[in-house]
# Entry
Amino acid sequence: MTAYDPGAHPSVFVTVDLAIFTIRDGALSLLMVERGEEPFRGCLALPGGFVEPEEDIEQAAWRELAEETGVERFSGHLEQLRSYGAPRRDPRHRIVSVAHVAFAPNLPEPHAGSDAATALWWTVDEVAALPSSSVAFDHATIIADALERVRSKIEYTTLATQFVPEPFTLAELRRVYAAVWGEAPDLGNFRRKVLGIEGFVVATEESGAAASGGGPRPTLYRRGWATAVQPPMLRPRPAS
Amino acid sequence: MTAYDPGAHPSVFVTVDLAIFTIRDGALSLLMVERGEEPFRGCLALPGGFVEPEEDIEQAAWRELAEETGVERFSGHLEQLRSYGAPRRDPRHRIVSVAHVAFAPNLPEPHAGSDAATALWWTVDEVAALPSSSVAFDHATIIADALERVRSKIEYTTLATQFVPEPFTLAELRRVYAAVWGEAPDLGNFRRKVLGIEGFVVATEESGAAASGGGPRPTLYRRGWATAVQPPMLRPRPAS
DNA sequence: GCAAAAGTGTTCTATGTACACCCATGT
DNA sequence: ACATGGGTGTACATAGAACACTTTTGC
# Structure
């Protein structure tokens, strides 16, 4: 098979699916939509849609991200995860889905705008507890892969800062790691690690508000120019 | 856009492309085919082909791997890399390519069987030195991404063993790292690292042949059951 | 004997781990 | 005053870096 001669080969539909993560009330959460039509009516699915004719896959993902979240100036991070293309993953047509992962700070509650009226934030624990019959298509697999991507990616990149709105305190950033990993890294070591990496965060002159029960005014930081964390931030005991 | 309603959406062709790496004469090498037809006639391209109607993407990749290498019992490793889908990456049709990476031990010289008659091994240095006009489509980008995947993957997995035929000596395994990274890890530290990870390699009772100039008979090993290397094997000074 | 390569040991240093502790502030 | 949480210090353990060195064999 010398490549790229379509011949009698069938064409398929290509979609993008999005696993959009954010942190709400200290819990890692995922945007999901309730399907209003068959197949899988009433099931939860990842937001997504078709790639348009003149559109790059990445463009399509950004467009869907804006449509589904209702945010036009999205400040977070978006990257491709991988593609899923089992022949009968959609019972109607052959559809290859290019899944993406997005890291978002404080997105608004999904509104009734566009057609994402049924979009809602679910914590990853809630999603994991769902019966497999209530998750559409192979999206449970995609979610599991996306979760692992997020958990590992904040180990060796600075992308954790994409989960907090600027400016932020180190305690807030640490709570990001706690939410994503399920366990908080050691306080002192975390501070040394983050501040020891040139350009991970940059301090501002301001100080934040003290906590409700009192305490010092924490220093506020902004995202720095660094992208890699090396050596990586290690998750607490990944069970040896 | 509520997902998965094709409506008037156009369908596209989906292919798999393969970056098949092996080590030949101590150099990391890549299988490429010379295109015999337009577009990009005479240019080098990654082997690949269309995904068949009833075929999973991964199945298609395995099938193409067998066809292009002429090996039916492939002993190495194959994984998805990512998808490429710019609208005009192929001038004739809209084609989304799901690229894969394969790690192979000692594959035979590509034969004239099937239609891979023009397939040849190129060292990655040779490929990097090619003018961009002689590499078809966006395959130079795919190759760069695939190379980085291989280089990083042998840091934190045991996949380096997939590049050597069993049984192998630790010196041979070390030469894999040297070939992929361009620099050899320290001899003593390398041995301690590999042998210190339970199940990375398992010793056999046999001893290999001494080197041409003489020397002790090295112990022979087989692949173990471990898949992760943690903490990872670090590449020598990645330029701070 | 000598060269070549396998295999071992040793010291130094960087980094992660696990804490204890101090300090500033709101209630 | 005291609880709360930001911020710092320190002793220990682990593991990588950079060597030197010994051993086994073919020529």
